[in-house]
Amino acid sequence: xxxxxxxxxxxxxxxxxxxxxxxxxxxxxxxxxxxxxxxxxxxxxxxxxxxxxxxxxxxxxxxxxxxxxxxxxxxxxxxxxxxxxxxxxxxxxxxxxxxxxxxxxxxxxxxxxxxxxxxxxxxxxxxxxxxxxxxxxxxxxxxxxxxxxxxxxxxxxxxxxxxxxxxxx
Length: 169
What we know:
- The protein is of the alpha+beta class.
- 40% of the residues lie in helices and 15% in strands.
- The protein has five helices and eight strands, in the order αβββαββαβααββ.
- The chain has helices at residues 18-39, 62-74, 96-109, 119-123, 138-150, and strands spanning 43-45, 52-53, 58-59, 78-80, 88-91, 116-118, 155-158, 164-168.
- Strand 4 and strand 5 (88-91) form a beta hairpin.
- The longest helix is centred in the first third of the chain and has 22 residues, at 18-39.
- The radius of gyration is 19 Å and the shape is elongated.
- The mean pLDDT is 93.
């Protein structure tokens, strides 16, 4: 990572001044979201390598990492994978609503209104409808599709076993 702030040693130490700490949290959020978007990383854990900068020999302490992850969750940029253990988060570099808008734009642009599209059509590896969503975890994709269903813009399609498999728009 080549961010100026990321290579600044005090960035890896929780700042005692509250105003400075809030700015530091904001910078951590930006660094994490930029990194995850660039690397298409959808899940981030408290032992992830982003919390260590070997170049400057610094690592964020575990209790501070938890505060950073909690801030991501409280700002709606992440969801806990397991709300009991709170060791990993799903990263939303775009909100579920923004992803839903992208899905609708793709459906409109390809004339698929009134059709059924599978989750694989949307985010699969082979010619995905929304290329930025390739590799998105199915749990996150389902949350995005739930947004469309709640907005009344799509219906969730299920297979014989009741598993969500796609959308009818």
